[in-house]
TrEMBL record:
DNA-binding as UniProt keyword: yes
Keywords: DNA-binding, Transcription, Transcription regulation
Designated name of the protein: Transcriptional regulator
Originating organism: Streptomyces swartbergensis
Domain HTH gntR-type, residue spans: 14-81
SUPFAM superfamilies given in the database record: GntR ligand-binding domain-like, Winged helix' DNA-binding domain
Parts of the chain that traverse the membrane: none
CDD domains: WHTH_GntR
A Pfam family that the UniProt record links to this protein: GntR
InterPro entries per the UniProt record, alphabetical: GntR_C (IPR011711), TF_FadR/GntR_C (IPR008920), Tscrpt_reg_HTH_GntR (IPR000524), WH-like_DNA-bd_sf (IPR036388), WH_DNA-bd_sf (IPR036390)
Example of a GO MF term: DNA-binding transcription factor activity
Signal peptide from the UniProt entry: none
C-alpha cells in the first residue's frame, strides 16, 4: 500500500458545516436548545471539534432559515417567538398553502394529491391513537409538504421550505398541547387535515381554503393562548 493511499481522507469544510447545521437544527427543533439560548462560535467549535469556519457557516445557514437570530455585536441566539411572530408565520403559511391548494385543484391533480395526503392523515390518526406524538408531528409536517409539492411550483416550494423551518419552532409546543387535550378527552381541531384533503379530492376550492384557514387560525389560537397562560403564572412558579 502506498503512503499516498494510506493517507487519511480529509473531510471538506463544507461537510463539517453541513454536519454542524443538521445537529444544531435538530437541537433547536427538538427543544434541546431553548428559545433565548445564545450560541458562541468558540464554544461550539470546541464542542464539535472543528474550526470556527464551519461553525460560522452553519450559524449563517440557520439564520437564513429563521431558526437562529443574529443580534448586535455578532451574538446569535435561538429566537423567542412573540405572538406577532406566530401570527405572521401562520399568515404566510395560509397564503402559501391556499395558493398550492388552488393550483392542485385547477390542474386536475385532486385525486392523486388526495391519496398522498390521506396516507398522512391515516398515519396521524394511528400515531395519535398510540400516543406517539413525535410521529404525529412528523406526519403533520409531511401532509403540508405534500400539499405544496403537489402544486408543482418551485417558487412556492422554495418559500415554503423557509417558512416551515420557522413553523418547527412552534410545532413542538402545538403538539404538546394536542397531547394534553387528548389525555383530557378533548380533541380541538379534530379532523381538520381530513377535511382539507377531502375538499381537495372533491375539487371544492372554497371549502379547501376555508378548512386551511380554520386549521391555521386554530393553531395560532392554541399557541398564543398558551403564551398568555405562561405570562399569567406567578414568578415563583417559573
Amino acid at each position: 500500500m502506498s503512503s499516498e493511499s494510506a493517507r487519511p481522507t480529509r473531510l471538506p469544510r463544507e461537510t463539517f458545516a453541513s454536519m454542524v447545521t443538521e445537529r444544531l437544527r435538530e437541537d433547536i427543533i427538538e427543544g434541546a436548545l431553548a428559545p433565548g439560548t445564545q450560541l458562541s462560535e468558540v464554544e461550539l467549535a470546541k464542542s464539535f471539534g472543528v474550526s470556527r469556519g464551519p461553525i460560522r457557516e452553519a450559524l449563517q445557514r440557520l439564520i437564513q432559515e429563521g431558526l437562529l437570530r443574529g443580534e448586535p455585536h455578532r451574538r446569535v441566539s435561538v429566537p423567542v417567538l412573540t405572538k406577532e411572530d406566530v401570527a405572521d408565520i401562520y399568515l404566510a403559511r395560509t397564503a402559501l398553502e391556499s395558493a398550492a391548494a388552488q393550483s392542485v385543484i385547477a390542474s386536475g391533480k385532486s385525486e392523486e394529491t388526495f391519496r398522498q395526503l390521506d396516507r398522512n392523515v391515516r398515519a396521524m390518526d394511528s400515531a395519535e391513537a398510540a400516543g406517539d406524538w413525535e410521529a404525529v408531528k412528523r406526519h403533520d409536517l409531511e401532509f403540508h409538504t405534500v400539499l405544496v409539492a403537489a402544486s408543482g411550483s418551485r417558487r412556492l416550494q422554495r418559500m415554503f421550505s423557509t417558512v416551515i423551518s420557522e413553523t418547527r419552532l412552534c410545532v413542538g409546543a402545538l403538539t404538546a398541547e394536542e397531547a394534553r387535550h387528548h389525555q383530557e378527552g378533548e380533541s380541538p381541531g379534530e379532523g381538520t387535515h381530513r377535511k382539507i384533503s377531502e375538499m381537495i379530492r372533491d375539487g371544492n376550492t372554497a371549502g379547501a381554503l376555508e378548512a386551511l384557514k380554520k386549521h391555521f387560525d386554530d393553531a395560532v389560537s392554541v399557541l398564543t393562548s398558551r403564551d398568555s397562560e405562561s405570562d399569567a403564572e406567578p414568578a415563583s412558579t417559573r
